[in-house]
Write a structure and sequence with these properties.
The protein is mainly α and about 130 residues long. About 50% of the residues lie in helices and about 10% in strands. It is built from seven helices and two strands, in the order E-E-H-H-H-H-H-H-H. Strand 1 and strand 2 form a beta hairpin. Helix 1 runs antiparallel to helix 2.
Length: about 130
């Protein structure tokens, strides 16, 4: 995309601008500001709706006792088990094991504290999901 082709549609940036790369007249990439693109708004809206639907499915699975609340909070932060493991300072296999409600219910306070810090929630919030 060339500098003069960078979209300037009014979108959800609320008057703010973001940086985009575009080709200048010399064929070199430069940073150009953009107020957004209507297609970008549609795609991002669809992605957010899908994330919300997946989070709701996980919430229901936690309420049914199929998953631990840890899965819900991880997904709410848009983390993967690998990212959560690194953030909490644990092995990925341990994090995945803690997705089982019966294992999660027996976790030590120190482990719960690590998860709570990694997910920026309190331990009490970590143990529950919204109704």
């Amino acid at each position: 995309m060339k500098v003069n082709e960078v979209p300037q549609d009014i979108t959800y940036y609320e008057g703010e601008k973001r940086a985009c790369y575009a080709l200048n007249d010399e064929g070199k990439y430069v940073i150009v500001t953009s107020t957004g693109w209507s297609a970008e708004e549609v795609v991002n809206g669809l992605a957010v709706a899908e994330l919300a639907a997946n989070l709701e499915e996980t919430r229901k699975a936690v309420i049914k006792g199929l998953k631990s609340p840890l899965v819900y909070h991880m997904e709410q932060c848009q983390m993967t088990p690998e990212i959560l493991a690194k953030t909490a300072g644990m092995a990925t296999f341990r994090v995945k094991r803690h997705f089982r409600p019966e294992i999660f219910a027996k976790l030590k306070l120190s482990v719960l504290d690590s998860y709570a810090k990694a997910l920026a929630v309190t331990i009490e919030e970590l143990k529950n999901v919204p109704e």
